[in-house]
């Protein structure tokens, strides 16, 4: 029997500016997004292999009770300073040039996965949020309850999301305004003085049984006249870091994922280990390195403290001079951060 020809399309938001010359848009194959040019469907056999195999660090992990420290309080919400505040996992409160962002808010337990560490304040206290930045649709990054809470407390908020994520948001709250973008596209909802671009990531999508790679994934660049910030989302090490640096130059602040990398046979095509995150940061010619995606949820085989311990070992050699490891709720002020 002759195999049906696959339908290949390149799509983007035609209303938005595409900043990479001659980029046709994100490739889809039979309606599913590719990771660049190649389809990536995580193999069920690898998931089963993981579940059925023994973690060689099981005992070490069992006795590793590390959790990130928490600075309680909500004073950062009322400050006018440019800052980055980690809220756990990939959730950040970011204020730049008077505009406030919340990235991938996951403020509660996940289905079957409890938070290992709390928030600095009640979720309802996160106010004056202008934009949600949602990097992709996995439930540890796009959480329905958290988005409902943020929108309830911030009726003015708008969501900046990947292509085809709008259907997910309509299912959460049909009143939440949003704008979709493909890779290398610039959102046009921002006020003067702040620009936000949706950039590539090497990852995948799935929330249900039949929606594999039906929604795009990616990263964000936030740019002001004096500072450029990169939020990596979830990603493996891949050529897009060099492409982003070529378009924007050095990143003043890099928010990089460092956890959920073991076992490598399952994780290496969608997450980075700390050494890979440092390599990506160097490709971006980064200034400040702020780690994320560790310590908040138990999602993989490495012991809880290992990602930070490896970062600190590299930093002790002098190779990673821009490392900042804030507590949850601790403001990282960004005064005079611009590279010259």
Automatic annotation (TrEMBL):
Pfam families xrefs: Lactamase_B_2 (PF12706)
SUPFAM superfamilies, sorted: Metallo-hydrolase/oxidoreductase
InterPro entries, per database record: Metallo-B-lactamas (IPR001279), RibonucZ/Hydroxyglut_hydro (IPR036866)
Domain Metallo-beta-lactamase: 101-294
Organism: Pontibacter rugosus
Stated name of the protein: MBL fold metallo-hydrolase
Signal peptide: none
Superkingdom of source: Bacteria
């Amino acid at each position: 029997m002759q195999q049906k020809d696959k339908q290949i399309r390149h799509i983007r938001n035609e209303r938005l500016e595409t900043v990479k010359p001659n980029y046709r848009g994100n490739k889809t194959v039979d309606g599913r997004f590719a990771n660049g040019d190649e389809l990536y469907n995580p193999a069920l056999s690898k998931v089963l292999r993981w579940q059925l195999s023994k973690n060689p660090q099981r005992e070490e992990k069992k006795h590793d009770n590390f959790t990130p420290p928490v600075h309680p309080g909500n004073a950062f919400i009322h400050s006018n300073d440019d800052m980055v505040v980690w809220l756990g996992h990939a959730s950040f409160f970011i204020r730049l040039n008077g505009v406030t962002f919340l990235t991938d808010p996951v403020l509660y337990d996940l289905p079957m996965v409890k938070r290992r560490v709390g928030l600095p304040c009640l979720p309802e206290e996160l106010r004056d949020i202008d934009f949600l930045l949602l990097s992709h649709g996995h439930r540890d990054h796009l959480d329905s309850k958290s988005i409902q809470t943020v929108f309830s407390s911030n009726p003015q908020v708008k969501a900046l999301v990947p292509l085809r994520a709008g259907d997910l948001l309509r299912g959460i709250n049909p009143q939440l305004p949003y704008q979709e973008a493909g890779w290398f596209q610039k959102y046009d909802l921002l006020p003067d003085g702040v620009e936000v671009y949706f950039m590539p990531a090497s990852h995948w999508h799935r929330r249900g049984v039949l929606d594999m790679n039906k929604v795009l994934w990616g990263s964000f660049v936030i740019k002001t006249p004096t500072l450029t910030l990169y939020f990596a989302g979830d990603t493996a090490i891949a050529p897009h870091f060099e492409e982003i640096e070529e378009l924007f130059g050095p990143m003043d602040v890099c928010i990089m994922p460092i956890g959920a990398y073991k076992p490598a046979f399952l994780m290496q095509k969608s997450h980075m280990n700390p050494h890979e995150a440092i390599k990506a940061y160097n490709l971006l010619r980064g200034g400040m390195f702020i780690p994320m995606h560790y310590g908040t949820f138990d999602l993989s085989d490495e012991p809880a403290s290992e990602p930070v311990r490896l970062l600190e070992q590299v930093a002790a050699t002098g190779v990673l001079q821009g490392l900042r490891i804030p507590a949850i709720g601790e403001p990282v002020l960004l005064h005079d951060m611009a590279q010259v």
